[in-house]
């Protein structure tokens, strides 16, 4: 996706949001902000174990425009990708009415941000548009949270540092949608940088920008078009199993565990499933750190090998893949020009990220279309900037 295409896409979203705001609320919005989706290159089901992750921000954004309205009511208009318009209202954090989760589910992401915004916020009107694929594991939830927070900073003049913003948006997702996510999504969506991946230490919250000089390579993201629902039992269950393993080792998290600690767990006769989860986390943390190192040296052959190792571990040990994701990775495995492929995101559907030669991208798309049982959607990703204000 070229820089020109990215700019045109954002300009079109802004026009759509601004026009809808004028049509619904009868005035121009005072400010606008956007935040991207993300794809994680490696380090899955690791952030809540305080390990290392290596995501990039995507050239797809959720964009929100709005104005304060001098009431204690928040009025939202969301324009879905289908063109359908949905609306909702709820009390602001300065209302006498408690702000609580409820229907519609999508508004809980915004409610959580409003409830956790420093100093509180009065009523506002806003319109939200997005081209971040929903339900594809590309963090559409963090995009809407961070975009909303960035807009509220502009409207109130109350700004916080980027790490604090990410933490408050994570807290919002824990409390209102009820999703016990790690910090990765909100962090990269807030602090992504064009042409860089971000190696994040999920314990210290320190990070390192890793240049992604791909040369004749490209990152192909294949959306399986299988929807997943991470607010069900599967994700919290994996998190609890990892914590059980850490507890049995007397550690605060699996971040400090070593491969030899697996023998200690075996000796304690822990459940085999818990042992599998621990092995994935320990080995995935090591893989992620290695990718961060070898990418600096442009050793993309090794990056690809680690992609495959990561996918196999997620499928067999963490058991968060699904037949559709496994099929796409198997199609990529051994195809001309492919260095590596893996599922990305929380799992149970979503996307596969593939590192391949640019010259083979169109052939790969045709190959997947001819063999995959579903209806995939493709896009070539490039590392992009994180959350920012947009000029109205």
What are the key terms here?
Ribosomal Protein S5, domain 2; Alpha-Beta Plaits; 6-stranded mixed β-sheet; 22% strand; single chain; 4-stranded antiparallel β-sheet; 392 residues; 2 domains
What does this structure look like?
The mean pLDDT is 93. This protein has helices spanning 3-25, 107-116, 140-156, 162-175, 184-191, 234-248, 261-267, 272-296, 300-316, 323-332, 361-371; strands at residues 31-40, 52-53, 55-68, 73-79, 85-91, 124-130, 196-201, 207-211, 217-223, 338-344, 351-357, 377-381, 388-389. A 6-stranded mixed sheet has the order 5-4-6-3-1-13, sandwiched between helices. A 4-stranded antiparallel sheet has the order 10-11-9-12. A 3-stranded antiparallel sheet has the order 2-7-8, sandwiched between helices. The chain has 392 residues and is α+β, with helices and mostly antiparallel strands. Helix content is 40%, strand content 22%. It has 2 domains: 3-210 and 384-389, Ribosomal Protein S5, domain 2; 212-381, 2-Layer Sandwich (Alpha-Beta Plaits), CATH 3.30.70.890. It is globular and about 60 Å long.
């Amino acid at each position: 996706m070229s820089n020109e295409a990215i700019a045109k896409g954002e300009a079109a979203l802004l026009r759509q949001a601004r026009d809808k705001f004028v049509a619904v609320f009868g005035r121009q919005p005072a400010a606008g902000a956007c935040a991207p989706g993300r794809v994680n290159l490696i380090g899955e089901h690791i952030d809540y174990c305080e390990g290392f992750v290596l995501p990039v921000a995507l050239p797809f954004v959720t964009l929100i425009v709005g104005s304060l309205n001098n009431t204690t009511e928040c009025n939202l208009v969301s324009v879905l990708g289908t063109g359908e318009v949905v609306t909702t209202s709820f009390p602001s954090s300065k209302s006498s009415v408690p702000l609580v989760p409820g229907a519609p589910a999508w508004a809980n992401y915004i409610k959580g941000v409003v409830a956790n915004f420093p100093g509180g916020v009065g009523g506002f009107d806003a319109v939200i548009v997005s081209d971040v694929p929903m339900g594809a594991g590309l963090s559409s939830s963090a995009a809407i949270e961070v975009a909303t927070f960035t807009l509220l900073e502009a409207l109130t003049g109350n700004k916080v540092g980027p790490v604090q913003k990410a933490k408050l948006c994570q807290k919002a997702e824990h409390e209102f949608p009820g999703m016990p996510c790690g910090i990765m999504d909100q962090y990269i969506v807030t602090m992504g940088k064009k042409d860089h991946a971000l190696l994040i230490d999920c314990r210290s919250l320190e990070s390192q920008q890793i240049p992604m000089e791909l040369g004749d390579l490209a990152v192909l993201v294949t959306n399986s078009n299988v929807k997943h629902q991470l607010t069900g039992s599967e994700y919290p269950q994996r998190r609890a199993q990892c914590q059980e393993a850490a507890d049995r080792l007397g550690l605060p998290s699996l971040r400090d565990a070593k491969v030899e600690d697996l023998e200690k767990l075996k000796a304690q006769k822990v459940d085999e499933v818990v042992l599998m989860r621990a092995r994935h986390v320990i080995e995935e943390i090591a893989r992620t750190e290695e990718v961060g190192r070898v990418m600096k040296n442009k050793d993309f052959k090794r990056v690809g090998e680690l992609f495959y190792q990561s996918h196999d571990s997620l499928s067999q040990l963490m058991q968060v893949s699904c037949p559709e994701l496994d099929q796409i990775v198997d199609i990529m495995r051994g195809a001309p020009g492919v260095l590596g492929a893996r599922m990305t995101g929380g799992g149970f559907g979503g996307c596969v990220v593939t590192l391949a030669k640019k010259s083979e991208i169109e052939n790969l798309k045709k190959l997947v279309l001819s063999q995959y049982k579903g209806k995939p959607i493709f896009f070539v990703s490039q590392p992009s900037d994180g959350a920012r204000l947009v000029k109205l």
